[in-house]
Amino acid sequence: MTPVLELRGIRAGYGGRPVLSDVCLRVPRGGIVGLVGESGSGKSTVARVAAGLLAPEAGEVLLNGHALSGRRSREACRQIQMVFQNPEGSLNPKRSVGSMLSEAMLFHGTATRADVRGKSQSLIERMELPPDTLGRFPRSFSGGQKQRIALARALSVAPDVLIADEPTSALDVSVQRRMLDLIRSLRDENGLSILFISHDLGVIRALCDEVAVLRDGRVAGQQPVADFFAHPPTEYDRALIDAVPRIEI
To answer: For labeling, which of 27, 44, 93, 104 is most exposed (least CB within 10 Å)?
Structure first.
C-alpha cells in the first residue's frame, strides 16, 4: 500500500551546514510513526522538510504517492499540518482562539461562515478546553491548554497527516498522559496518519505503531515498535533505549 507520506533521499541543512544527508521515511495511512534520535540529530529538520517549511537540497517528499513541489499548493498545505514543541511560537497572542480557528477553516474551505463557529466550538469541546475558550487569548491558558489549542487549529482543516514535533516535552507527566490519550483517540476517530517526534522512548512505545531511528543524518531503520523494543537492531538503538529518560503511560 502506498504510504500517505514518504520522504526519499532527503538532504537538507542550514546556511551550508548539512543536517540530513539521505533520509528515507514513510508514514502508512492511519499509522503513527515515531521518530527518535539523540538531541541535535535533525529530528525537527525532518519535520520542517515534511511540512514544507524547509526546502530540501535534494530528494523528494511524496503525498499519496505524488511528489510535492517546492512551492506547495494550498491543498497540499491543508493535507499536512504540524504541531510544534512550543505553542507560544505558533499562536498569535493578539488573536482570540475563535478568530484563529475561523481563519484557518475559512481559508482552507473546511467550514462556511454560517457553520464556522459551531465547528470551532465542537473542536474546543473535543480538546477538553473550557467552554469560553473561543473568546479568550492564548496568554490566559496553561501550557497544556495552549498545546491543545494548537492541535485544534491543525485539525480544524481536516488534514491527512499530522506532524507532531515534541508536543509533550514541555508538559508535566499527568498533562502528557492526557495529551497522548487525546492524540491516540483522534487517530482512531479520524483515520489520521501521524509522524510523532519525541526524545522519550516511553511515549514512543505507548503511542506509536512503528519507530524510525535518526542517526548521522540518516534514518538507520524503520520497524514495528514491538520489534524495536524486544530486539534492538544495533548497539546504538540499545543504548538509546537504556539512556533516554522516559515516562510510563
So the answer is: 93
